[in-house]
Design goal:
Layout (H helix, E strand, L loop, with lengths): L6 H11 L5 H20 L3 H18 L9 H20 L19 H19 L3 H12 L4 H8 L3 H24 L1
Length: about 180
């Protein structure tokens, strides 16, 4: 299930395809956060992630004329980003992804002891997430931290919705076990 493109998507594509001044730059600014999020969460090295983001937008510029408006433009660009990153991982045989997004604020106390405890808990959570396989980690990040609906996560990752739900369920279970094992140690 994909979300239909809106009029803004149609106007953006038309502007880029007709070479209107600044149109591609607007497209890039509008979608660069999504592309960076997807690529950097799959690729550990920041320099490689930057290069892959450039590759994504090169592909977008080359393939935009073929965009069929069967989904949102952001979904289509996200699919390209995911494909580019996964292809890079296959070539590099890397099976982990980077997790460096800021986590939701856990409280507002600012005593030194609380800040230290909070930092330690955040680091344990980052370490546990880092221990997950790539797709469960990506699905958890997109669904929980980016608050995307399951249908959008499925579209971005090229996975059926049921598979996304399975990755979310198993990822949460594994995360819980990793955190419980760490607390017992």
């Amino acid at each position: 299930m994909s979300v239909a493109p809106n009029e803004e998507d149609r106007e953006m594509v038309h502007a880029v395809l007709t070479s209107q001044a600044g149109a591609f730059e607007r497209l890039l600014r509008q979608h660069q956060r999504l592309v960076w999020l997807l690529v950097q969460r799959l690729v550990r090295e920041p320099e490689a992630a930057r290069e892959l983001c450039q590759e994504v937008f090169l592909r977008v510029s080359r393939q935009l004329a073929g965009f069929r408006f069967e989904s949102r433009l952001s979904t289509w660009i996200g699919r390209i980003a995911t494909s580019v990153a996964l292809r890079h991982l296959e070539k590099q045989r890397i099976d982990t992804i980077e997790f460096d997004a800021e986590l939701h604020d856990l409280g507002h106390e600012d005593t030194p002891a609380h800040l230290l405890d909070r930092a330690q808990r955040l680091q344990r959570l980052r370490d546990a997430i880092d221990a997950l396989p790539p797709m469960p980690r990506l699905c958890l990040t997109l669904f929980h931290l980016e608050e995307l609906p399951i249908a959008e996560v499925a579209a971005l990752t090229h996975l059926p919705e049921g598979t996304v739900k399975s990755h979310l369920h198993r990822g949460r279970d594994r995360l819980r076990a990793l955190l419980e094992n760490h607390d017992e140690a």
